[in-house]
Design goal:
Elements: E1 4-9, H1 15-24, E2 28-30, H2 33-43, H3 54-71, E3 79-82, H4 85-96, H5 101-107, E4 113-117, H6 134-150, E5 154-157, H7 163-177
Parallel strand pairs: 1-3, 1-4, 2-3, 4-5
Domain NadR/Ttd14 AAA: 4-166
Pfam families: AAA_28
Protein name: NadR/Ttd14 AAA domain-containing protein
Length: 180
C-alpha cells in the first residue's frame, strides 16, 4: 500500500496549517512545491511565477513534485504531501493546454485516498506567495477535484473545522483504509 498521502484543494483552505499539525504529531510532511518555487523565484527575480508565467511555474512544480514523489517512495509510515504531481500537471494543462495529467497521474500514484480542503472564505488570505484572489482559488479547486476524480482517487473533502479535528479525521480515515 502506498503511504504517500496527498492533501490538496483550495489555496488558502488551511492545508499548510493542517500539515504542520500532522508534522507536530510525528509524521513526515513534504512542503508544497509551489511555495518553494515562488520563494526561489522571488529571491532571484525570476519569472517562473504563477502570476507571470504559469506554464513555466507549473513545469518547475512538476519536476519538484516528481522528485518529492521519488524521494518518499519507500516509506513505511504515512508521508503527507502539501499538493502533488497531479496539482502541478493540472496547472500545466490549464496554463498551456499540454496534455500531461493522465500520463503523470498514472505513472506517479499516491495513496488511493486524497484529502481536499474546500474554499473557505473566512480563512482565505493573500500574501507575497499567494497573490490570486479567492475566485481564482475556487476555480483551481474545481479543476483539482475533477482531476483527482478522473484519475480514480477516493476523495475526502475536509470539513471546515478546527485543525485538530481535521487531523484526527485524516488519521481515522487512513486507519480505516489499512487492510486488516
Amino acid at each position: 500500500m502506498d503511504r504517500r498521502v496527498v492533501i490538496s484543494g483550495c489555496s488558502g483552505g488551511g492545508k499548510s496549517t493542517l500539515l504542520e499539525a500532522l508534522r507536530e504529531r510525528g509524521f513526515s510532511v513534504v512542503e508544497e512545491p509551489g511555495r518553494r518555487i515562488v520563494r526561489e523565484e522571488l529571491a532571484s527575480n525570476g519569472s517562473a511565477l504563477p502570476w507571470i508565467d504559469l506554464a513555466a511555474f507549473a513545469r518547475r512544480a512538476i519536476s519538484a513534485a516528481a522528485s518529492d514523489w521519488e524521494a518518499n517512495a519507500k516509506s513505511d509510515s504515512w508521508v503527507f504531501f502539501d499538493r502533488s504531481l497531479v496539482d502541478a500537471a493540472s496547472a500545466l494543462e490549464h496554463a498551456s493546454g499540454d496534455r500531461v495529467l493522465d500520463d503523470l497521474g498514472r505513472t506517479h500514484p499516491y495513496h488511493r485516498r486524497v484529502f481536499l480542503t474546500p474554499p473557505w472564505p473566512e480563512i482565505y488570505g493573500q500574501d507575497e506567495e499567494r497573490q490570486h484572489d479567492l475566485e481564482a482559488a475556487a476555480e483551481e479547486y474545481d479543476r483539482l477535484l475533477a482531476a483527482y476524480r478522473m484519475l480514480g482517487y477516493e476523495i475526502t473533502i475536509l470539513p471546515k473545522a478546527s485543525v485538530a479535528e481535521r487531523a484526527d479525521l485524516i488519521l481515522r480515515t487512513l486507519e480505516a483504509d489499512v487492510p486488516r
